[in-house]
Amino acid sequence: MNSTAATLMVGIDLRTLVRRRWVLGATLAGLVFLAIVAVIAAGQSGQTRADTLQSNGASLVLIGGLVVAVGLGGGAFSRDASSGYLGLLVGSGATPSRVGAVRLIARLVALVGIFAIWGVGMQMASLALGRGLDGALAVHTLAWVVNCALVLCASAALASVIGPVAAGVFGLMVFVCAQAVVNLKADLDQGAISRGSQSFVDSVYSVLPRAIVSPMLADLQRRGHAGPAAPDMNINGLVVVVPASRLIDLLWTLLWILIFAALATYGVRRRQL
Asked: How far is Cα 138 from Cα 127, in angstroms, rounded to an integer?
């Protein structure tokens, strides 16, 4: 299969995805939520107005983003494999690995598209509130594209061999572990846990993927206004703030995304199509 055919397959998958009711519903629900947030923030002023928009925007990309990532990743293969569509693609000349890669790319593009729509909605809300474009919120949205891509690819890796529900749970567990690793590292660095656990924390931090934390989220948590996106952490009487991610953290998590993507494409080769 040449690149033109692969591009065509990606386009067909994308067209199918955008027609699914749950994808449209999730996207529109996010925009409606942002409109409600903008109305609430309009009755506020100063820093409170900015915090309301930013904290609720962070909550949207956390909860909505994870829902979309799990849905796209966990449902990447089972439906079309059981209907025989994937087998038809393989029978037409595409290799199973190419089919897996194309479907994963289509879902990643759909994820980015949904975040782009939400991101535009956030910026429009910021403009309507007289705050201008919110660069910090845009950076946070990009950071969560990476986090949700990790969840999507992890879910797809397991979905290539088992059912969508278990695959989605696995994707969520990968994110929980990635967030826990970052939280543990912050606890250790800020003296909230014993130095005796340093070897364990450093080991898991060096191996496992890391959740990406934006400067905006770190600032909101420091001031106690992050909401569900970054609740206050009080460990042994010490308030811990998770710092913003570094470039090395981003690169490490991107490597894990590639690993899970490779496992997804390999898993399709082992699946009955």
From this structure: 13
pLDDT attached to residue 1: 52
CA distance 89 to 273: 9
- With the C-alpha atoms ordered 63, 69, 72, 78, is the resulting torsion angle positive or negative? negative
pLDDT tens-digit readout, 52-66: 999 999 999 999 999
CA torsion through residues 41, 47, 48, 54, sign: positive
pTM passes above 0.70: yes
Q: Is the pLDDT of residue 86 over 90?
A: no
Q: Are 132 and 34 in contact (CB under 8 A)?
A: no
Write down the residue that tokens 């206004």 correspond to.
225
Query: How many separate helices (H) and strands (E) can be counted in the chain?
Result: 12, 2
- pLDDT 10s digits, 152-177: 999 999 988 888 899 999 999 999 99
Phi, psi at residue 2, to the nearest 5°? -85, 175
Residue 158 sits at the vertex; the CA angle it makes with 186 and 58, to the nearest 5 degrees, is 40
Three-class SS state of 62: helix
CA-to-CA distance for 230 and 239, rounded, in angstroms? 13
Residue 93 CB neighbours (<10 A)? 10
Terminal alpha carbon distance of the chain: 18
Q: Residue 59 to residues 46, 80, 84: CA-CA distances in angstroms?
A: 21, 32, 38
